[in-house]
Amino acid sequence: MSVREPLRIRKALLAGAVAVALSGTGVAIAWSAGDSPSPSPSESASGKANGKDKAQRPQHLHGESAVKKADGTFETELSQQGTVDAVSETSVTVKSEDGFTQSYAVNADTRIVKVPAAAADGSPAKGDDGKRLKPSEATIKDIATGDTVRVSGVKNGSDVTARRLVEGAAAGPGNGFGLGKGLGKGLGLGKGQGHGPDKPKESDTDD
């Protein structure tokens, strides 16, 4: 037997092994293709998932978090959604759906915002001119027992002072205070003063 004979035999065996492997892969592919795949979610189902009613979304009822301020000190912030259980000129008590109740002191620094009630079809409230009504500044006198509110405050020992109180449509599910959690809904009143182009410098006008 010449030296080339074993080499030819090896090549033939290697080719046979590759053929067997390929045929086995083909059988596996054919079996997988013949097996019934799991049905993918239909477009209508995914559409329902993406278009969930706000009432079906998870709702943040209340929470407490430690915050490090710019000056390096720390404070504890509270946020809560619920209904007004009691209210006076200096305090408001809010009760969440799960029964959690918290009282907040109200002072001159507490910002109170009242959001117009939505239309009957759930769309944003509009004025006689057809324009969307904006949230308005309010006082504690505008808050009544039973109102739906969102409140955020700072805890000092066992006392909590309200920083912001929102009553009305914006107190519903999915609307937050913009406390660095990406949940703010732009409840600013747009009262900032605009700034036009800078005036030309004197050196520019002297030429």
Brief write-up:
With 207 residues, this protein is of the alpha+beta class.
What features would you describe in this structure?
The protein is of the alpha+beta class and 207 residues long. Among the domains are: 1-31; 59-171, OB fold (Dihydrolipoamide Acetyltransferase, E2P), CATH 2.40.50. The chain is 21% helix and 28% strand. It contains 3 helices and 8 strands; from the N terminus they run ααββββββββα. It has helices at residues 4-34, 43-50, 202-205, and strands at residues 62-68, 74-87, 91-95, 101-105, 111-115, 136-138, 148-156, 159-168. Strands 1, 2, 3, 4, 5, 6, 7 and 8 form an 8-stranded mixed sheet that branches. The radius of gyration is 33 Å and the shape is elongated. Residues 24-36 and 173-187 have low confidence and may be disordered.
Give the helix/strand layout.
Layout: H1 4-34, H2 43-50, E1 62-68, E2 74-87, E3 91-95, E4 101-105, E5 111-115, E6 136-138, E7 148-156, E8 159-168, H3 202-205
Parallel strand pairs: 5-8
Antiparallel strand pairs: 1-2, 2-3, 2-7, 3-4, 5-6, 7-8
Features:
207 residues; alpha+beta; OB fold (Dihydrolipoamide Acetyltransferase, E2P); 8-stranded mixed β-sheet; 3 helices; 8 strands; 21% helix
